[in-house]
Amino acid sequence: MSLPPDQLRRLVGHLPDYVVLLDAEDCYEWVNRLDPTLSWEDLAGRHISSMLPPDSVETVMTAISTCRRTGESTYYEALGYSDGEFETWYGCRVVPAPPDDQGRRRVMILSSDVTKRRRAEKALEASEERFRRLVEGSPGWIVLIGRDRTIEY
Fold this sequence. Notes:
Layout lengths: L4 H9 L4 E5 L5 E4 L8 H4 L13 H14 L3 E9 L4 E11 L8 E8 L1 H22 L17
């Protein structure tokens, strides 16, 4: 059983992730939902690179061209928004989409917010660096002995 197109659009519109369909020229053809600061008129027919932060353009365009060339999905993470204090990172999978009516290749980009995970990774790296500096800068001996009584550090 297949869903009628309008029901399918409504269903996909409720996904927590963004789904973007790009045409053969990498222009927006469809999105499942919009950022509250945008309207469809802001995106319709625009090249994806015009809506990306400058630091992300090369990463995104490389992933798209690799997917088009190989026919296989690609993954990248890119900064989607930054105001100097707050950053939003997206993990994006570029997948082949069915061709258009003229048989030209299209792609879809499925984007998930990975900001929390990236912040946690950054905090873990900082914590590990602090611990390393503390241990290596200690004037005394620090020895870590494993359960099997071997020296691990």
